[in-house]
UniProtKB/TrEMBL annotation:
Name this protein carries in UniProt: Mitochondrial outer membrane translocase complex, subunit Tom5
Similarity remark: Belongs to the Tom5 family.
UniProt keywords, alphabetically: Membrane, Mitochondrion, Mitochondrion outer membrane, Protein transport, Transmembrane, Transmembrane helix, Transport
Keyword Iron-sulfur found: no
Organism: Aspergillus ruber (strain CBS 135680)
Length: 49
């Protein structure tokens, strides 16, 4: 696209890249939520025990 002579990606390759990017974003969001909630979970377990 930006480099001369670079080959074009097929529709399947573009779709695979979109799926991979979507999974990466979802796992990053899930990890951020888990990291945010982990101190609350540790405090809950300490109070429970």
């Amino acid at each position: 696209m930006f480099a001369p002579g670079q080959e074009q990606l097929s529709k399947e390759q573009i779709k695979a890249g979109e799926i991979q990017a979507s999974q990466t974003v979802r796992s990053a969001v899930a990890g951020a939520i888990m990291l945010y909630l982990s101190p609350f979970a540790v405090d809950f377990v300490k109070k429970f025990l």
